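Annotated sample (chain length 160).
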Amino acid sequence: MKALVVYYSRTGNTREVATRIADELGCDIEEIHDTQKRTGILGFIKSGYQAARGKDTVLEPYEKDPYSYDLVIAGTPVWAGKPSVPISTYLKENRSKIKRVAFFCTYGGSGAEGTFRTMKEILGMEPIETVAITEKEIKEDKCDCKIEPFVRDVEEAFRE
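Output written by the structure step:
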């Protein structure tokens, strides 16, 4: 299985989970970079507003072609119950190149189900696996109990 973990992280939480997943799978990883500034409280407010309205953004060029991979594992923070604008944009730009997909998200309150549903709708395909990890689980270093089964299930689902 040739897999790619692709993610966007505004605060670093999603980056931490993405790195752990890629390390466990021994696969490639790519961080998506937005051309819009999203730092601070104003960035937080703008990001939630744009996500709630299904807006797109302009991404910096990415290096890895998702078509070259058997599986793309897309990771995003939850913004207003939706995937981040950069990940939504990435999925829209690459939906014809993604063969199989798995999703993960990080969040502080709620919205994981809506985030996964929106990602599935954008791609028009079911993910082979999903996992949602809270900010608290990341900060308390308790997310491995979710990452390890996710990685195992991804590997098993891919063999089927």
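Annotation: The radius of gyration is 14 Å.
Annotation: Residues 3-155 form one domain.
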